[in-house]
Write a structure and sequence with these properties.
Radius of gyration: 26 Å
Order of helices and strands: EHEHEHEEEHEEEEHHHHEEHEEHEEHHH
Largest sheet: 4 strands, antiparallel
Number of helices: 13
Number of strands: 16
Strand content: 5-15%
Distance between the termini: 72 Å
Shape: globular
């Protein structure tokens, strides 16, 4: 039996010296207990009964990491999705969606990159710095995460068709009946608790993740409850991700979307903004409540009530990071950011990238004309004409009829009507 003194929670040397004598920081553990954990980490602070969890079932029993590649030259082979011509996107002959980790985000998102896979990957695979494993498992679905993260580990759903980077690996689940149960578990505080033991350096490689003790509910009602909560979380996270132009599934500014449809009618921007805030506030707090309930369910399954609470700080909810802040325990929307997104969409309409006559991209490819796009979408008389020469002057004063300030006033007039134009511009 050895004695350990845990001082890692204290920053200064004075605090460490003072807390050295605090009995609450002293732990006793047996070396043979550490051997019950794969890799034998010295988790001296764990209660003795928790060591037995590692003997029951491990995550690796549900699947494995099938693919992880390194291009050898990301500048050569990777592009943001909006840097390429849209018809070639997701084509096995050219561009393939690519998972590469990214920011701390749960359930859905970080889908921004595409990989040059021309000629079935010939150039890529013959490049000197290229490394890969298990090519036959490319394009499978499963769960992905960022293998390096200072914020903790967070799992996201990944559909068919992706190739995965070493920093955004794929956990392919053999029996898809377990997929929602596993992503629920992996995004709870229970997983965070065990990963502090398995990956203390914040390097969440598959070798560490695979060792996670995995207990799933046996009660069918609880299974169904978890699956319902997970589906809601995925839907909310995907809708939020797709609400920005940086998503390849973006349709239009949320200020003009009502019940999923593009809405153009007389009204006030202020009212549209309030609808936006009410709508996303409800989604945010629903996601927060769902995550706390999933924490509670898995804390009970693992019998960790003495170690963990289900509480989730509002700051830890991984949506609306640009559009809102948590101030004094409340979700506060940032009007300036939301208006910037509205203006950006307006400029996109001016250039013909988007159209007020339908959702999604309008002209997004090289050598495609406005006439081609209008014909493709069967638009005879556009609600808002795109700029005819593809040049919009940005000047301090009005010198041209198509300068950006004049065009934006016209855009607001078109989308919200003439009656409240002055108030909307203010």
């Amino acid at each position: 039996m050895a004695t350990y003194i845990r001082l890692t929670d204290y920053k200064s040397s004075d605090e460490k010296e003072q807390e050295f004598f605090n009995p609450e920081n002293r732990y006793e553990a047996k070396q043979e207990d550490f051997e019950k954990i794969p890799g034998s980490p010295i988790a001296y602070w764990m209660k003795k009964e928790l060591f037995q969890k590692f003997k029951q079932n491990l995550l690796t029993n549900y699947g494995t990491q099938k693919t992880r590649i390194s291009t050898g030259d990301n500048n050569r082979f990777l592009r943001l999705w909006f840097e390429i011509s849209n018809p070639k996107m997701f084509s096995p002959n050219k561009w393939i969606p690519y998972s590469k980790g990214g920011e701390y985000r749960r359930y859905y998102g970080n889908n921004e990159l595409v990989l040059n896979y021309a000629n079935n990957g010939y150039e890529l695979e013959n490049f000197k710095g290229y490394q890969s494993s298990a090519k036959e498992y490319y394009f499978l679905n499963g769960l992905t995460w960022s293998s390096l993260s200072g914020a903790g580990i967070a799992f996201r759903i990944l559909k068919d068709g992706f190739i995965c980077d070493a920093k955004g690996p794929l956990f392919n689940i053999e029996n898809k009946d377990f997929q929602y149960l596993l992503i629920a578990l992996l995004n709870t505080k229970v997983t965070q608790y065990f990963m502090k033991i398995l990956a203390p350096t914040l390097d969440y490689n598959w070798g560490s993740v695979a060792k996670l003790p995995t207990l799933l509910p046996k009660n069918n009602l609880i299974k169904e409850q978890i699956e319902t909560l997970v589906q809601q979380n995925i839907d909310i996270s995907k809708e939020e991700w797709d609400s920005r132009e940086t998503s390849w599934d973006f349709t239009a500014t949320p200020l003009l979307i009502d019940n999923g449809e593009l809405r153009i009618e007389n009204g006030k921007i202020e009212d549209a903004y309030k609808r936006y805030c009410d709508y996303w506030s409800d989604k945010f707090y629903r996601l927060h409540a769902n995550e706390e309930e999933l924490n509670r369910l898995f804390i009970d399954i693992y019998e960790l009530q003495d170690e963990l609470t289900p509480d989730v700080a509002l700051e830890d909810i991984t949506i609306l990071k640009n559009e809102a802040k948590i101030i004094d325990g409340e979700l506060v929307f940032q009007a300036d950011e939301i208006m910037k997104q509205f203006i950006s969409y307006g400029v996109g309409v001016m250039f013909g990238r988007y159209s007020l006559d339908h959702k999604g991209l309008h002209v997004a490819n090289m050598n495609e004309s406005l006439d081609d796009a209008n014909s493709k979408f069967n638009i005879q008389n556009p609600t808002f004409e795109a700029d005819d020469d593809n040049i919009i002057p940005v000047l301090e004063d009005d010198y041209f009829k198509d300068d950006i300030a004049s065009r934006f006033v016209q855009f607001v007039k078109t989308t919200f009507g003439e009656e409240n134009l002055s108030e909307n511009i203010r």
